[in-house]
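Please go through the protein record below and see whether the fold suits the sequence. Record follows.
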Amino acid sequence: MKKFALVISILPISMLCADANRMIDTNKYDNIFNQLAQKRAGLTDDQIQAVKSPFPVFNDNRDDSRGGVNQNQEYILTGVFGDRAKINDTWYKLGDYIGNYNLRKVEARSVVLSNDAGDNIEIRLQGTKNVNISFR
């Protein structure tokens, strides 16, 4: 009986809250959605083309034929890891082209580059501050 009395007393309160929720003014939200649906003016194609790129362009002696470094540039080996070598601050894997040279051989402390004419360049690691990494 107590449960029934509790339900009967809560029922009118919940009906009042439901009526209060129905009385929310939706006109404000309708206006917002109508404003969003209107066509917005943006930039014209000419204005977009006139915008200067925010990214700087550097001339870094790249060889356009293969995307690597120019063959006259000095090659500096700074790291070796497995079949990969870090030459001039870029990682290359075995078989990749660095300018006109191909990374042919990767050893623990040196790499061998060769070009199509058969010229070979051996590059050795500089210094002794390298870290040896081994895994099982």
